[in-house]
Specification:
392 residues; mainly beta; single chain; elongated; 11-stranded antiparallel beta sheet
Length: 392
């Protein structure tokens, strides 16, 4: 015969597994991408407005899902010449490129060739464009970034390929960095253009091409795509009310403050984040918290400190976004049990948010605290360090 306590433990563990399964499934579904406002330009030159499924492509796409008032269609590079997503300020252009098969995953006994033996028509992301030159980005199947310069209707790959060579039983890292000679040659028509050769990377090349375009006309139109792809780091400043209830520690509506950092992930995970923060509740009376527990007979005041680590996601692409995640809270001072539970909230521009946590504790499976508990309610401000230290 199964005892009541055994059945209760089994039910608790079952609910624990179900909760995590629902969370993982919902997160995986979200990773498939959302439809965003935008437009496509057909091969005939027609502009069609509708919704484009944004998937944070970690490889340059061959086609997109486009939805209009009639249906959802897959449009490839033969059917459309470009597409644009409004909220991301990002444009993709259909271009034919040559394939260079050089990779860091292979060890070469002789230097590999830069000769292209195959070609492919794909959508390249426009990094920046102006009156004279456009910089485009390709991500290949290995996740490597390559850049192309389009000028006078000619597309040229900026050559940069590192590779490993084995010589005399020694592995050496070498590279083809022809782009350092290509750029001055291709952009030699700018008489007043002086700039240090850039690193082979998105932002460095973007700034270089923007300076080149502006050398012809400071007021000339220039378009730079949004940087949804980058890792971004936010400083967290928070304040709010904290409550807690368990047999050995109980308190209600105590003002707390905290600080920490949030890392926002790139590409397909562009709405996901990882956060770490420290929260403090000053002026807490030990006797009142612990109810005269013999282990803590001290009546003095102390600052109760908790270290939190969590992960979650924003949902939606408007100014107001819902957020949901999971946190693990470790008490630095022994004032309550470890907390493992969800965090819910709503944010504005990812800068301000109202969040609630600690209201449900999945750690109840391993302790005598209740599953539903008193909540932590916080107001949060996120200061974006990428924007703060962005180079002009």
């Amino acid at each position: 015969m199964i005892s009541i306590s055994t059945r209760s433990t089994f039910l608790s563990r079952f609910l624990f597994v179900v909760f995590f399964a629902v969370f993982i499934v919902s997160t995986a579904a979200f990773s498939q991408g959302k439809f965003l406002d935008g437009y496509v330009i057909s091969s005939k030159g027609d502009t069609l407005k509708g919704l484009i499924r944004y998937e944070g492509w970690d490889q340059s796409p061959l086609y997109i899902d486009f939805r209009d008032s009639q249906s959802i269609r897959k449009l490839n590079t033969k059917e459309i010449t470009e597409f644009y997503i409004d909220s991301l300020n990002t444009r993709y252009l259909s271009r034919k490129i040559g394939i260079v098969n050089i990779t860091l995953k292979k060890l070469y006994s002789i230097p590999p060739t830069l000769e292209t033996k195959d070609s492919l028509v794909i959508f390249l992301r426009e990094v920046t464009s102006g009156p004279k030159a456009t910089l485009l980005e390709d991500i290949n199947a290995s996740g490597d970034f390559h850049y192309y310069l389009e000028k006078d209707h000619k597309l040229v790959e900026l050559i940069y390929y590192p590779f490993y060579r084995l010589a005399n039983d020694k592995k050496t890292l070498l590279k083809y960095d022809n782009y350092k000679n290509q750029l001055p040659d291709i952009l030699s028509d700018a008489k007043n253009f002086k700039a240090k050769l850039p690193y082979y990377g998105n932002k460095s090349l973007q700034r270089y091409i923007e300076k080149y375009n502006k050398s012809f006309n400071e007021l000339a139109y220039s378009h730079s795509s949004g940087q949804e792809y980058d890792f971004t780091v936010d400083l967290i400043f928070q304040t709010g009310l904290e409550s807690w209830r368990e047999p050995s520690a109980t308190f209600t509506n105590k003002l707390f403050y905290g600080f920490g950092a949030r890392v926002n992930l790139p590409r397909k995970l562009h709405n996901r984040y990882i956060r770490m923060n420290l929260s403090l509740i000053p002026g807490m009376a030990n006797e009142k918290i612990y109810g005269g527990n013999n282990t803590f007979p001290d009546k003095s005041l102390s600052t109760l400190t908790t270290w939190e680590i969590g992960a979650g996601s924003h949902f939606g692409y408007k100014k107001f976004k819902a957020l949901a995640g999971m946190d693990v809270s470790f008490p630095i001072k022994p004032w309550r049990t470890v907390i493992l539970g969800p965090r819910l909230g709503i944010s504005y521009l990812r800068k301000f948010s109202l969040e609630i946590s600690h209201f449900a504790n999945l750690y109840f499976v391993f302790s005598d605290i209740p599953f539903f508990n008193r909540p932590n309610i916080s107001l949060n401000y996120y200061l974006n360090l990428n924007t703060l230290f962005k180079k002009k």
